TrEMBL record:
Residues binding Mg(2+), per UniProt: 36, 64
Subcellular location, record wording: Cytoplasm; Nucleus
UniProt-recorded Gene Ontology molecular function terms: dITP diphosphatase activity; ITP diphosphatase activity; metal ion binding; nucleotide binding; XTP diphosphatase activity
UniProt subunit comment: Homodimer.
Protein name per the record: Inosine triphosphate pyrophosphatase
EC number: 3.6.1.66
Residues annotated for ITP binding in this entry: 8-13, 48, 64-65, 140-143, 161, 166-167
SUPFAM superfamilies on file: ITPase-like (SSF52972)
Lipid biosynthesis recorded as keyword: no
């Protein structure tokens, strides 16, 4: 396939996507923080993808990450970036203090398009966990407070995270789709 441009303003996403995909898909990155609409995770990712196709010549992929608290009807969801900036990991813990249920899902939604005339296609991955007081190095977002099977993502070895994460699961679906698609012939026929 043609080289696909991953458009993101987040260098940690680049590190993970590059590590997960290895050399299975030719990827280059463009560091750009695209505007994000309000809406469902799929709507946000598709809209971001359409904006990316206006800027990049050739196939593009974008990603939107969400953190859904069960006790709060899936909020903060796609707005986690702003909650994290405003409250920090400690504040996110305090948000859940009144609730017994501390469970959460990390959700990663990729959208791919081969150009401005094509409908973006969405691939989503989900990781279940529990929100806990911060443990581990605070390198990437809310990793220190998201516990999965006894370890926070910040405590987890990178290789382990990259083999089970929400991002890994979404990229497996993307890879699978690419392996079976007739993308070079008519990708728009496969849009949703
Ligand atoms: O601990 C984490 N482990 C992860 O695996 C992860 N993935 C995303 N995030 C954070 O969640 C927000 C998503 O917002 P987001 O999807 O809009 O990303 P972004 O604006 O940073 O980049 P982009 O939109 O340009 O791609 C941002 O604060 C990201 O730092 C993560 N934190
Ligand atoms: Mg963003």
């Amino acid at each position: 396939m043609k080289t696909c441009t991953f458009v993101t303003g987040n260098p940690n996403k680049v590190i993970e996507v590059t590590a997960i995909l290895g050399d299975t898909i030719p990827i280059r990155t463009l560091a750009l923080d695209l505007p994000e609409i309000q809406g469902s995770l799929e709507e946000i990712a598709r809209d971001k993808c359409r904006r990316a196709t206006q800027i990049v010549d050739g196939p593009v992929i974008v990603e939107d990450s969400a953190l859904e608290f069960y006790a709060m009807n899936s909020l903060p969801g796609p707005y986690i970036k702003y909650f994290l900036e405003a409250l920090g990991n400690d504040g996110l813990n305090k948000l859940l203090a009144p609730y017994e249920d501390k469970s959460a899902d990390a959700v990663c939604t990729f959208a791919y398009s081969s150009g401005p005339d094509h409908v973006p296609i969405v691939f989503q991955g989900r990781l279940h966990g529990t929100i806990v007081p911060a443990r581990g190095p605070p390198v990437f977002g809310w990793e220190p407070i998201f516990e999965h099977q006894g370890e926070t993502l910040a405590e987890m070895a990178h290789e382990k995270k990259n083999n089970l994460s929400h991002r890994y699961q979404a990229l497996c679906k993307f890879r699978e789709w690419l392996a079976h698609s007739t993308i070079d012939q008519d990708p728009s026929t496969r849009g949703e």
